[in-house]
Amino acid sequence: MEQYIDDFLNFLMIERNLAQNSIQAYATDLVDYVDFLNDENIIDMHHVEPAHISKYIVSLSKKDFSSFSIARKLSAIRMFHRFLQGEHEQETNPAENLTFPKLSKKLPNVLSHAEMQHLLQQPDITDKFGLRDRAMLEFAYATGVRVTELISAKLPDLLFDEQLVQVMGKGSKMRIIPVGESAIRYVLDYCATSRTLLSRASTDDTLFLNHHGKRLSRMGFWKILKKHVQNSGIKKQVSPHTLRHTFATHLIEGGADLRAVQEMLGHVSISSTQIYTHLDRDYLREVHRTFHPREKYYRSL
Question: Is residue 55 annotated as part of the catalytic site, yes or no?
Fold first, then answer.
C-alpha cells in the first residue's frame, strides 16, 4: 500500500503541480488511513469497501478530530481512491458516495485595529532582528500573504516604485498585491541596514533572512510572531494565518469590494473569501444608522 501512496504523491507533484506543503498534508492523511486499514487486516486496496472508510471516519470522531479535519481527510481518501481507479488498481471508488461531515461555520480569529497596531509596535527597531521583525509584520499585514509566501519573497518581487509586490502563490500562480507606505518604509529600512548585516556570502535574493543569512522557516516565523504576541499582552490565539485573516477582515470592514479582496488573497473561489464578511453586528448597525437616509432623517428630529 505504501507504493500506492508514493505513486499518488508523485501524481500530485508532477501532474497536479501541488505545492510541497500540500503534498505533505496528503501524505500524512493517507499514511494514517493506511495504518488504520492495516489494523483492520486489509492489506489489499481491492478489499476496501465503503464500510471500512465509514468505520475510519467514526474512529476519527471518537478521537475528537474536528469536522474540518475529518472532511479534509475524507477528501484526501476520495481523491486517492479515484487515482487508483484511474490507474486500474481498483474497479470502483469506495469513498465516492460517502458524505462529508457537516461543517460548522467557524469564523477565523482576527485582531482588532488596536491589537494589530500594538503588535506592530513590539519589535525593537533599533536592533537588526527587531527591524527585520517589524518589516515582516508590516509586510504580512499590508499584503495578507500566506506564511509560505512571506518567507519565500524575493528582492525582485518588490515593485515599490508602483507600491506593489508580486507573490508566487499556490499552484505556482503569480499575483500582484498593493502594499502600503508604512510597510514599504520598514521593508526598505530593513533592506538598507539589517539585511546587509544578516547576509552572508552564500545568501541569495530571499527578502527576509534568519541569523544564518538564509531563508526563514515557517516555524522560525511562527516563533518570532509568538514572542511579539506574548510581549504585547494579546490573549487571543494568534498564528501566522491570523495576520492574513486580519488583513482581509479589516479591508472588508473598511468597505473593500469582495472580489478585490479575493484577488489579493489569491482565492480561486469567491466562496473562500466570503467567510471574511462576518462583520461585527454593532459595526453594521452603526453603518446603517449613519448612512441610511431614513435613519439620518429621524435622528435629526
Answer: no
